[in-house]
Amino acid sequence: MKSIRVFLVTVILAVVTLFSFISALRGYETSLQEVERMFDSQLVEKAKLIANINVQSIVRNVDSSDTAFQVWQGGNLIGSSDNASQTILGKLQPGFRYHNFEGYRWRTYSYYNTINAQWIIVAARQDIRFSLAENIALKAVLPAVIGLPILAVLIWIVVSRGLHPMRRLAHELGDKQANDLSPLSIAVNSQELAQIVSSSNDLLARLKSSLLREKQFASDAAHELRTPISSLKVQLYNISQEQPERNKEFGELQKITHQLEHVVEQILALYRTSPDEYHTRFEAIDLTSLAQQVIAEEYDNYERKNQQIEFFGQRQLILGDKFSLTTLIQNLLSNANKYTPNGGHIIVKIKRENDQVVLLVEDSGPGIPTYEHERLFQRFYRVGGDRHTSGESGCGLGLAIVKRIAELYNAEITLEPSSFASGTAFTLHFSAIIPVTLDSKQS
Amino acid sequence: MLPNAVILILQETLEAALLIGVLLAVSTRVHDSKRWLPIALISGGCVAAILANQMGIISEWFDYAGQELLNALFQTIICLTIALAVWLTATIDPLDPQPGKVAAFSHCAIIIIFCAVVREGQEIILYLSGFMYTENFQKVLTGGALGFSIGASIGILLFYSLVDHAGRERRAACLVLLALFAGNMLSQSTLLLMQIDWLTQSPPIWNTSTLVAETSIFGQLLYALVGYEATPSPIQAAAYILGVTLVTGANFMPRYYPDKKKQQVQPVRGNDA
Fold this sequence. Notes:
The complex is a heterodimer of chains A (443) and B (273). The longest helix of chain A has 52 residues, at 191-242. Chain A contains eight helices and 14 strands. Chain A folds into three domains: 4-139, Beta-Lactamase (2-Layer Sandwich), CATH 3.30.450; 191-272, Helix Hairpins (Orthogonal Bundle), CATH 1.10.287; 280-442, 2-Layer Sandwich (Heat Shock Protein 90), CATH 3.30.565.10. Chain A has 443 residues and is an alpha+beta fold. In chain A, helix 1 runs antiparallel to helix 2 (126-175), helix 5 packs across helix 7 and helix 7 (322-339) packs antiparallel against helix 8 (398-408). In chain A, strands 7, 8, 9, 10, 11, 12, 13 and 14 form an eight-stranded mixed beta sheet that branches. Chain A is rod-shaped and about 150 Å long. Helix content of chain A is 51%, strand content 21%. Chain A starts with a helix and ends with a strand. Chain B contains eleven helices and no strands. By secondary structure, chain B is mostly helical. The longest helix of chain B is centred in the middle third of the chain and has 32 residues, at 99-130. The chains are: A alpha+beta (443), B mainly alpha (273). At the A-B interface, helix 1, helix 2, helix 7 and helix 8 of A face helix 1 and helix 7 of B.
């Protein structure tokens, strides 16, 4: 259900239409039967009137040709209307029946006058009776049909009016910034929405407190861990120099220590880039030269895996700070380096699209299933979870950091399949500041 | 006059409305854009108007069997396309819908609704145009509006009641309705072929007209929903069973012959730098 309003209007209208129209049809049938009964009683009245005036000749039917009558006495036709036949219309038995003559179907009523011992048969054309009855019954149905569009508009207005506070609430929630955890200030009168607003405010308060605790913990833990890790690294180096015969064991220890340091650095980077803690003054940064610099620094990693990295770009300036942008590019490139197999390809492109600078990093890795895209940027999330089989070490923070930095720049991140047979392309759109045309290509 | 118009237009509208309702519910499952609906309705309406206008010529084709043959063709196409659409939905993974298969489903939906609208639409236009310049036109039009609105309302309620249910239940309900609808289409097409003596007529295998009359509103609803026939011939019954089997088979076939590409283990990668 995409829209509650459309759902309510269509379902209410469908239910109202169904019941009112079926009722109208029942009403139509009942009206038809009532009008038929009324016409029948008219026939009875006419028969009694003719019996009272004692007709004994053929008289001209002054009323219309849709009624006819006969007066029979002792098996002889002693009087009739000029449009009636000379044979008996129906039977000489009291009651209603149908009879065909003059090419029409007639409703007849036979009445026996005991005073004169006469049979009076009155007939009315059935087609005209039915048409009149249907016209009367139709008038009862028409308002329901004509009123349907008006009813639809009224239901639309009423439902829209009823949902107005909900739309206001949705707007207020939609307008909130990602880092805005302040309580909702909307004033609502309805009980249902008041409960939602109250519950949302409680939730926001708990979330704010929880995030603060998490940030504080991450920050404290990272700071507290940095110093002992540095000491540990120095001590390990010293011992390894003293005992060169145990280089293999020390090498493993150094590798684990390096990994530990990496996790701590990543946690610190994540903390530093929190929007509410981010007070760095932005300056004009050449994203192209920054990306080249990062690639040059990390080149050993690509060489180690025999990967081919290509860079295409123009000089492009954006407003930002060097540290956060370097971290962003490092994380994207490190991710590509880790999950692209030996001998694979990585392409980095920086280009201008209208008033935006686009950073594209694509690889020939195994690719990421679409259903994983949303969770990919969550902290400590690794694709495949416990079944992660890439063999690469990691803590699941890299892309969370990328996303956090992108949010600081209001840059949109998109994930698509790469231009290789398999792999992923990460694209980030930044706002450009100065138009430049200097082209460069490095490989 | 009015009840006749209600019954006839309700019968035509109900079939299309139920089909649209079920297909919309199915398309919600496969995350289809539903753009096929206006395309099929508009193009079907236009073609229905053209066919109704040319029906005099069409009915003279094949020794005055043109109209019946055309309708039988549309019904057979609807039945086969429903089977194809059901097969596609059975192979589409709702969590990771393949764009190619979703697009193929949209094309199937266009064909089904287009054929249904052309078939029902031309009959409605022919019926209404027969009363165009008579004094009964207002009554027929009012009856038509009543029949159309009742049919459309039932279609809307069916759609929302299907969408309201969880994935498995909705899928089962949609499958049952589509299978019965396909059986109904194939059964109706054999009836038309019997009317023009392309198939041999035979006495009905049962008669339930005293139990539920085909002309009653309930009978019409049953006819549109499950293809109710009070006096079906053996060929009609066989065609009905064939249509139902075709759609049911199309749904279960991917279980026994799964997509080999999907069986391959997806490689994984981390989010870590």
